[in-house]
Structures are given as C-alpha cells and as structure tokens.
Amino acid sequence: MMDNILFPFSLHGKEKMWFYTNKVDFTTWDVCFNAFLTKYFLMGKTNALRSKISGFQQLPDKAIQVAWERFQEYIVACLHHDMEELLIIQSFFHGLNQPAQNLID
User: How far is the C-alpha of 104 from the C-alpha of 38, rounded, in Å?
Assistant: First the structure.
C-alpha cells in the first residue's frame, strides 16, 4: 500500500494513465516515487540541479538569508538529489563569501 494516497490526484493526462496502468507494481511509496522519477524526470535535469546544489555560490551583496532561501529552492526542485546532508551543508557554507563564512563560524 502506498504511503501517499493523494499522489494520483496530482496527476493529469499521460502521467495519470501511466500511474493507473502500473498501479499494481507500486507496493510502496518509494517504488512509485522512483518509477515516476525514472519515467518523467530526465537524468540530465537531475544532474543539472545537483550541480546547482554542489556548486552553490552566494551572489554579491546578498545577505546570508537570501542565499539560504535560494539554496533551499535548489533543494526543493530536486528532492531526489541523493546527496548526504553533510555534503549539502558543506556546499552551502563553502558557497558563501568570506565575511558570511566568518559570521557563521
């Protein structure tokens, strides 16, 4: 049984047809989630979003809070990034300018 019973209601058109055609194969939410990403979220897009996370840079003259919000947008856009939490934190910290890093330290 799937954990997220509302998922099918978020689908339309070919995605909805795909879901109901393959529904018996989705014994868990993880199986469904991974199958959906494999089918509809291209690897190139995933890699581009991972690169945004790992190569994050604070924009000039932007506050830490603004940088953090932008960084969080990258993470939300790619919830399946499969990056360890420590690596994500390091990416953010090392992407900050020196004064911001000093302030956080």
Answer: 38
